[in-house]
Amino acid sequence: MSTVEKIVAYAQEHQNEYLDVLEKTVNFESYIYGAKEIKDRCGFYLEERFQKLGFETWHVDGGESGTHICGKLGDGSKKIFLLGHYDTVFPTGTTKERPFRIQEDKAYGPGIFDMKGGIVNFYMAVKALKELNCLPNDTQLTFFFSCDEEGGSVTSKHIIEEMAKEADVCLCAEPGHKGEGYITIERYGRDVITVEAKGVAAHAGNNPQQNPLVELSRQALYIQENCRDDNMLYASIVSFHGGEPGPTAATPESGYFIVDIRYRGQERGKKAAEIYGNLKPTIEGVELKVLGGVEKPALVQGDFSKEAIERTVAIIKEMGYEFRPVCLGGGSDGNFTSGVGCPTIDGLGPNGEFLHNPKEYILITTIPQRVGLVAELIRTL
C-alpha cells in the first residue's frame, strides 16, 4: 500500500472524527460583519484543534473584524504555508435556523463549503501525517486563518503577503468544486475603483453646462466599453450616485460611481489600470478623481509554480482521478500569495457545491481523497 493510500485509509477510518470537528466548527457562527466575541469562538476552537497537533499558535488583532489565528509546527527548511479563512457570509443566527446536518452523502451548514471544511481538511491531513509517522522532519508548517476574507481581507492582506514571502509553497483551502480531481489553477484579478466628478450645481431649467452626472455617464460608458476583452477582461458599474432621489429642478455639484473590474492574467490588469488611470474630463470645468485600484491581483501559474503544479497533477493521477483544473472569476487570499511569487495551489477544500448559498454542502464520500491530496502535498512538495 502506497503512502497516499495509507493516508486515504486513515481518513476513512477517522471520518466520524472529521465530521465531529466540522460540525462544531460550522455551528460556531462567524459572520464577517458579526460581533467579534461571537466570531472569535470559532477561531479559538480551531486554534485549540491545531494546538493539540503540536502547533505553536498566536493571534493577530483584526479590530472589529475579529481575531486572525496563526500557527507554526516544526523548524525544517521546507516551508509550507496553509491558508484559510473562518469567516462566512451568513448572518449571526443562521445556524439556529439551519445548523450542521447530514443527509445521505452530503453534509450541510453555513460556511461548510466556503470554507470551514477546507480548514478541517488541513487539520485531518496533518493529524494523519503525524499519527502515521509520515510528516517529514525537514518540513516547517505555518498557517494563517483569517477572520475577514469575505469582507475583502482588509486587515489580513499584508500579513498574508509577508507570510507567503517566507514560504516555499502555499496551500489554500478554498472550496474544491463538485467532484474528485478538481483544484483551482487560476483566478481572475479584481480592481475596485470609484470615479468622482465635481461640476457646478445649477438650475435644471437653465441648461447647465457643467453637470457632473453627464460627465460620469460618459466615463462609465468609456470604462465599460474599453475594459473589455471577451470574458478575459470586463468592467461592471455596480453603483451610481448623485443628485436627489426624487425629481428636482436642480443638478448636483458632484457625484460618483463605483466599478468592479475582473481580469485574467496580470497583463489585462495593467491594461485596465491604464484605462481608468488616464481618464480625462470631456466637459470643460468639470473635475475628475479616480480612487481605488487593485483589490486582488490575478492568481496565475508560471515557472515559479511549475514544480508544485506538476506534483499536484501526479498525486491526483496516482489516486486514480482525472486532473480537472478550474479558472474562477472570484478571488481568494491565494491571489495575494501568488501575487508575491509564492507557488499557490488553491481549491483544496472538500468537494461540494453552492458556496454562499443556503443549499451549500460538501460530499462526505469524497472527504478521504481530499484529505489524502492535502496530506500528500504537505509530505512531498
Can you describe what's shown?
The chain has 381 residues and is an alpha+beta fold. The chain folds into two domains: 268 residues, Zn peptidases (Aminopeptidase), CATH 3.40.630.10; 108 residues, 2-Layer Sandwich (Alpha-Beta Plaits), CATH 3.30.70. Helices cover 35% and strands 27% of the residues. The protein has eleven helices and 18 strands. Strands 1-2-6-3-7-16 form a six-stranded mixed beta sheet, with helices on both faces. Strands 4-5-18-17 form a four-stranded antiparallel beta sheet, with helices on one face. Strands 11-13-9-14 form a four-stranded antiparallel beta sheet. A hairpin with a 2-residue loop joins strand 4 and strand 5. Helix 1 crosses helix 11, helix 2 packs across helix 5 and helix 5 crosses helix 11. The longest helix has 20 residues. The chain is elongated, with a radius of gyration of 23 Å. The two termini are 20 Å apart. 46% of the residues are buried.
In short, what is this structure?
The chain is an alpha+beta fold and 381 residues long. It has helices spanning 3-13, 15-27, 36-52, 94-97, 112-131, 157-165, 212-226, 266-277, 306-318, 334-339, 367-380; strands spanning 56-61, 67-73, 78-85, 101-103, 106-108, 139-146, 169-172, 182-187, 189-198, 202-203, 233-242, 250-251, 254-263, 287-296, 324-328, 344-345, 352-353, 361-363. The chain has 2 domains: 3-187 and 298-380, Zn peptidases (Aminopeptidase, 3-Layer(aba) Sandwich); 189-296, Alpha-Beta Plaits, CATH 3.30.70.
